[in-house]
Amino acid sequence: MTGDRHGAASPARRTRRQKITAWFSLHPITIVIWGFLLLLVVLGVIVAHTYHGTGEPCPPDKVCNFVR
Questions:
Q1: Exposure on the CB side of residue 48, measured as CA atoms within 13 A
Q2: What residues have CB less than 8 Å from 9, skipping those under 6 apart?
Q3: How far apart are CA 27 and CA 61, in angstroms?
Q4: Residues in CB range of 58: below 8 A, 6 or more apart
């Protein structure tokens, strides 16, 4: 019958947000993509916190990164 609703809209009548949500939730490749992006962020944070200089040696008259 015309006008009956059976819980979910047909794919043609879904809103853009519903389509995007359905695509992201149904495709396993998105899990791989998000996992890779998360890995890049974590590695970026680690490198940002551990990298302290240009790689040049410290001059003898200066104390570099010395903690007492």
A1: 6
A2: 18
A3: 59
A4: 64, 65
Is 44 in contact with 50 (CB distance < 8 Å)?
no
According to DSSP, residue 11 is labeled: G
d(CA 59, CA 64) in angstroms, rounded, equals 8
pLDDT higher for 36 or 53? 36
Looking up tokens 């809209």 gives: 9
* Number of Cβ atoms within 10 Å of the Cβ of 43: 10
**3-state class (DSSP) for residue 56:** coil
pTM score above 0.85: no
Q: Position 41: which residue type?
A: V
Residue carrying the six token digits 């990298």: 51
